[in-house]
Amino acid sequence: MRTYHQLTDPDRSGLAEQIGAQRKRVAERLAAVRRIVAVMSGKGGVGKSYVAAHLARGLARAGQSVGVLDADLNGPTIPGLLRDSDARRTTHDSPEPANGMDGVKYVSMGQYLEEGSPLSFKGPAAESFVWRGAMEASALREFLSDVAWGELDVLLLDLPPGMQRYIELCDILGNAPAVLTVTIPTPESRDAVRRAMRAAVDHGSELLGIVENMVGGELKGSAAADLALEFRTPVLARIPWHPSPDDWSELASRLPEARGPRPQAL
């Protein structure tokens, strides 16, 4: 497969201009967002969305204006976690985010799907595998460029398992976002999260810290401590099985300022 720079002029079809225009629109839309943080783990089953939602609420209770972009298009859970009974489904040019608990703004594919229905794209069935990834990346781009987020102190990006959405996000923003990593204590989680953290470092993301979730139960191990030592980044919180609002407030107070660059156009 050829890269963009290997294409001849007829094949390029103004691709650079299109990408540049998209990034410019994203940068303009997010200009009033003070910091952007990607919440990721690289694997499923660690309670990453749970952490993202309750961290957002903790930040909001501390007086910050907070938004959450649910980037897990195939398994959206943020509407349920923020317990919003009136998730507005808007499709006009500048849709407003919905308001969840504690005033947290959010956008999720869950707002646009009928309950129990899977995410699907219209098109030739024989080409669905080819186009699905491109359509999901396009949906993520629209959430960033079309939603009227307004002024926010923090926008949390709740990423799904794996690294593909993170890579797409880096491309859409034009820069690698700061990353908050979520793990559970087990060695298996440590090994999977380590790969994700290494990829984030290789792409230029700033590691803000590690949250170890589901601590104090049947899950045993020292994943957070091991990863903190390896990557020289702090363990911001160890969240118990039955956390209290104070646990989330403490995590919110310890979230560092992201020093990374802002989204940019080509």
What's this, in brief?
The protein is built from 9 helices and 8 strands.
Description:
This protein has 266 residues and is α/β, with parallel strands linked by helices. The protein contains 9 helices and 8 strands. The protein has helices at residues 9-12, 15-29, 48-61, 78-81, 128-146, 164-173, 187-202, 223-231, 245-254; strands at residues 33-40, 66-70, 98-99, 105-108, 152-158, 178-183, 207-215, 235-240. Helix 2 (15-29) packs across helix 5 and helix 7 (187-202) runs parallel beside helix 8 (223-231). The radius of gyration is 19 Å and the shape is globular. The model is unreliable at 1-7 (pLDDT under 50).
Number of strands: 8
Average per-residue pLDDT, rounded, comes to 84
Computed over alpha carbons, the radius of gyration is 19 Å
Determine the number of helices (DSSP H or I, runs of at least 4 residues). 9
End-to-end Cα distance, whole Å, is 23 Å
Q: Any low-confidence stretches, pLDDT <50, length ≥5? A: 1-7
Spatially, the strands of the biggest sheet line up as 3-4-2-5-1-6-7-8
Q: What percentage of the residues does DSSP assign to strands (E)?
A: 15-25%
The helix fraction, in percent, is 25-40%
Shape: globular
Given the helix and strand composition, which structural class is it? alpha/beta
Main beta sheet: 8 strands, mixed
Order of helices and strands: HHEHEHEEHEHEHEHEH
